[in-house]
Amino acid sequence: MESISSLIKKLSWGTPEEEKEDAIKKLQYIEEENLHLLLQPISKDYWDGAAETVVRLGYPRVKSVLTGLLEWIQDTNWPGAGQISVFLREIGDPMIPYVKKVLNHHSDDQEWVYNIFEELINHWNTKQVLQIQEELIKISQEKASDLTALRILLTHNVYSKEGVCEIIQRKKDGLVFELKELHDTHPEIDCEALNKGFSETIFKQPNLSKEYHEDNIDQFIICNAISNLENNLSEIEIFTAECLT
Question: How many CB atoms lie within 10 A of CB 147?
């Protein structure tokens, strides 16, 4: 039988379909200690084929590499991520401990947590959601993915609408306070003029855009903070309109 590495090399986009299919079939006999070799191997043009191989192996054959498979959806634009997302979703309950671990230890990885919400948790039933209730409550008190967590807690009746309204109001009050404090502390900064100047520099003298940014870096930092707060307030308004009216 061909080696595992030689079979994996046939999973690329450029391999003829018949040859790739033969490799996938042979890889169904891969031993457990070699399963990790299928986790995003070699380069991205091999990942679709590797994902197809994993899906065909099925659960519980791939139980030992579930952590690595969950890492595969850190970026849903990666080849194979779509297949892996659906596969992990269909596994159901066995994924809960792995999701809990990510929520507990990587809640600051906004894109990954967002993808886990979108691809997995949003498809869970109430019994499954209740098993990550503690993690959802913790995230709902933070600034990243908090509204997504609140939406799930509300949908599955962990929180009442009144309770969520109180939390949302506190968040809104806090954001308004931070925004006012930034404006009061830096009244001299005109973010609209700053960004307009940057755009004009890029258009008229693109070679000076880096210098413009560096010369005004402190102002850009403040303006970015203001913009983030305004975006958060906007998201709260949307959440309120969608979920609490």
Answer: 23
48 and 129, same domain (yes or no): no
pLDDT of residue 66: 98
Q: Give pTM, 2 decimals.
A: 0.86
Q: Mind spelling out the 3-state secondary structure of 63-96?
A: HHHHHHHHHHCCCCCCCCHHHHHHHHHHHCHHHH
Give the residue among 62, 39, 56, 45 at the shortest CA–CA distance from 10: 45
24, 73, 198, 209 from 216: Cα distances, Å:
55, 37, 10, 11
- The closest alpha carbon to 132, from 120, 144, 143, 115, belongs to 120
| Residues 129 and 136 sit within 8 Å (Cβ to Cβ) | yes
C-alpha distances (whole Å) from 99 to each of 67, 74, 132, 172 are 9, 12, 8, 29
Q: What pLDDT, on the 0 to 100 scale, is given for residue 145?
A: 86
Domain end, chosen from 45, 66, 91, is at: 91
Is the pLDDT score of 144 beyond 80?
A: no
Last residue of a domain, one of 56, 72, 91: 91
- Give pLDDT, residue 174: 94
150 and 171 in a single domain? The answer is no
Tokens of 25: 């079939």
Residue 177: give the domain boundaries: 161-245
User: Would you say 150 and 140 are in contact if contact means Cβ atoms under 8 Å apart?
Assistant: yes
Give yes or no: residues 132 and 153 share one domain. yes
Residue 88: which of 113, 120, 57 has the closest Cα?
120
